[in-house]
Amino acid sequence: MRKADEQGFREFAAANAASLRRTAYLFCGDWHTAEDLMQSSLMKMYIAWKRIKDLDNLIAYARKVLLRTWLDEKRRPWRRAEQRDGELPDAADATVDPDTTSAKLWARELVHTALLQVPPRQRAVLVLRYFEDLSVAEVAVAMGCTEGTVKSQTARGLATLRAIVEKLDSSSGRVAS
Amino acid sequence: MSEQEIREGMLLAVWDEPPLDFDPDTLIKRVEQKKSRRRALVGVGVATAMIAVVSFALPGLLPRGNDGQLASDNPTSSSAPPSEPVEKKAQRLGDKLAEKLDLKMPNLKDVYAHFEAGVYAYQPSSPTTPPRRANDPELSGFVYLTDDIGPTSLQVVLTKNRSIEEYICVSATTCRDVPQKDGSSVMEAEFVEGQEITRSVTLRKFPSGYYAQISSYNANPATGSGLRQMVPVRVDVLTALVTDPDVRWE
């Protein structure tokens, strides 16, 4: 690869690595796996960089690669076998406002428990629509499906997520808004 | 739960993200290493496939002789001569031994030989052919002859089985080992009962591991009958036969 192309990739990767890792985290719910997914996606992009470097929307392409990498990874047998059943609690931080902390913990629970129970493709649609703030058309491009499919998957995903959150709230005593 | 709440919830979920330790140069280095490893692997695979194809195709591409052996343009003197079929060898040895015996003992009549390939000498009168055994000689048979007393035969064995050497002198009246100039050695044994020689044996041992043995009995070994007082052929004649340069045993 030419030095100029390599430099272009270097700049793109450095600018978008964090954003891609966040999206990957919402897909998989684990920061380590998210980092692996981000790195694998960028490696794939580096190999194809000569061909893709002139694309209009490189970050959309990167999201598409990330999504494919995650879905492929989920199909692997050793990933299917892995079942995480808990996480060590973080140490309490006395300097933080308790209300803010409570909201953040609830959000974490929303992701860890509720979002991870939504089927993968519906989850991907929700993350791309509400976290990445993409339009239906952009999500359709990223998912490689029609806009109609995106809409139906969004509706189903929202319904599933709401049902799970309601269930979680009722079991924890919190009232869903 | 509204869409806005979901949006905020997702943003809050990544609030405590761990610090990102990402270096594009390290990633590029890893990709390049992977690429070179893949290239090496493909190279090894292609080379292995080519070797396999050539090893299978080469015997088919080389010219072959009529007998299916690979032909060679320049046969060297060091290469081993083509091996003679054992049936042909049996025929050749039998004819030659009969011819030589006839020359050495002109008083004999109807001298002829019959050798079998790969079967231990057995009596032709046997109703069935005995089964093959592991220690069967390469060939064996009888040189038939008729002397003043009547028809009888000499037993001939050509083998690579070393045990033939162990028993030749057992219970022999006389037994001696005579080294030959060509590196082979000859063992002569005679068995005497009373005043008569009942058995004469000559065994020639070749450096190649071959043993050629000719035995003369006071009975016809081919039939088990025809008992007589003395062997029809003495050990000196047997030794002359087994060491005759015209008889190519090997």
Overall description:
The complex is a heterodimer of chains A (177) and B (250). In chain A, 30% of the residues are buried. Chain A has 177 residues and is an all-alpha fold. Chain A has nine helices and no strands. Chain A has helices at residues 3-28, 31-47, 49-52, 58-75, 77-81, 98-114, 120-131, 136-143, 147-172. The model of chain A has no long low-confidence stretch (mean pLDDT 81). Chain A folds into two domains: 1-81, Rna Polymerase Sigma Factor, Chain: A (Orthogonal Bundle); 97-177, Winged helix-like DNA-binding domain superfamily/Winged helix DNA-binding domain (Arc Repressor Mutant, subunit A, Orthogonal Bundle). The longest helix of chain A is centred in the first third of the chain and has 26 residues, at 3-28. The N and C termini of chain A lie far apart (54 Å). Chain B is 32% helix and 23% strand. Chain B has two domains: 3-61; 86-242. Chain B contains five helices and seven strands, in the order αααβββαββββα. With 250 residues, chain B is an alpha+beta fold. At the A-B interface, helix 1, helix 2, helix 6, helix 7 and helix 9 of A face helix 1 and helix 2 of B.
String of helices and strands of chain B? HHHEEEHEEEEH
Distance between the termini of chain A: 54 Å
> How would a textbook summarize the main sheet of chain B?
7 strands, antiparallel
The computed structural class of chain A is: mainly alpha
What attributes characterize this protein structure?
heterodimer; A: 177 residues; mainly alpha; Rna Polymerase Sigma Factor, Chain: A; Arc Repressor Mutant, subunit A; 2 domains; 9 helices; globular; B: 250 residues; alpha+beta; seven-stranded antiparallel β-sheet; 5 helices
Brief rundown of the structure:
The complex is a heterodimer of chains A (177) and B (250). Chain A is mainly alpha-helical and 177 residues long.
